[in-house]
């Protein structure tokens, strides 16, 4: 009786599966284009030169490099409503600040965290394109998860933050803020009428916290327009941090 010959089975190596390329939606493509345009406008503006000048002073005067940016109150970028252009520009400034700091940090990585209670899933998808990590908060008056990532190497970026959150951040927080790019409190005092609740809040933050900071107003033409509804900004640096390097 003939014996059947069993041929050895050759197993071919399986090819690694390629991850499908997800094409950005039209809305995301549109937003990315708007952000790119805003970055280009910012780069050639006097406003950008002023911010970079102030950041250069801080980074050269402090022994502690800024390796982290915590953005608070950026707002929803995907909602086509009033203020969207301003919020897109705020993001463009944030990205350029990181770029400036990374140059001063000699190519080191500066990570960004962003937190806003109005963030939507499209917002988070958009921000992930720029390697921005999302933090959670229940409301605009709370520090939320940001309280856990603020450290001595963090710069807070808050161009449109609530007064309640500023109180939590600058007066009540156990972790002191060393660097802040946000609302100019000198201008905030002029914004609110005397004896108003808002002016009282501004005065509280000013008296309780801002005396220990070096303040530099950020100004310059070529970027913000009246229609943006932007508010004057300033850079605050803890005086002990600015003088730290000079003493060494």
Q: What is the tally of helical segments?
A: 8
Strand order of the largest sheet: 3-2-1-4-5-7-6
* Radius of gyration, whole Å: 23 Å
Report, as a whole number of angstroms, the end-to-end distance. Answer: 96 Å
Largest sheet: 7 strands, mixed
How many distinct folded domains? 1
SS strand fraction: 5-15%
Q: Can you write the helix and strand succession as a string?
A: HHEHEHEEHEHHEEH
- Rounded mean pLDDT score: 87
* Low confidence ranges: 9-13, 244-248
- The CATH level-2 architecture is identified as 3-Layer(aba) Sandwich
Q: Quote the CATH topology.
A: Rossmann fold
- Percent helix, as a range, is 40-55%
Task: Please summarize what this structure is.
The protein has helices at 26-43, 46-61, 84-104, 121-128, 163-172, 185-191, 197-208, 239-247; strands at residues 68-72, 111-115, 132-135, 154-158, 179-183, 213-218, 233-238.
Attribute tags:
Rossmann fold; alpha/beta; 15% strand; 248 residues; 41% helix; disordered C terminus; globular; single chain; 7-stranded mixed sheet
Describe this structure in words.
With 248 residues, the protein is an alpha/beta fold. The protein has one domain (27-247): Rossmann fold, CATH 3.40.50. The protein contains 8 helices and 7 strands. The protein has helices at residues 26-43, 46-61, 84-104, 121-128, 163-172, 185-191, 197-208, 239-247; strands at 68-72, 111-115, 132-135, 154-158, 179-183, 213-218, 233-238. A 7-stranded mixed sheet has the order 3-2-1-4-5-7-6. Strand 2 (111-115), helix 4 (121-128) and strand 3 (132-135) form a beta-alpha-beta unit. Helix 2 packs across helix 3 (84-104), helix 5 (163-172) runs parallel beside helix 7 and helix 6 (185-191) packs antiparallel against helix 7 (197-208). The longest helix has 21 residues, at 84-104. Residues 9-13 and 244-248 have low confidence and may be disordered.
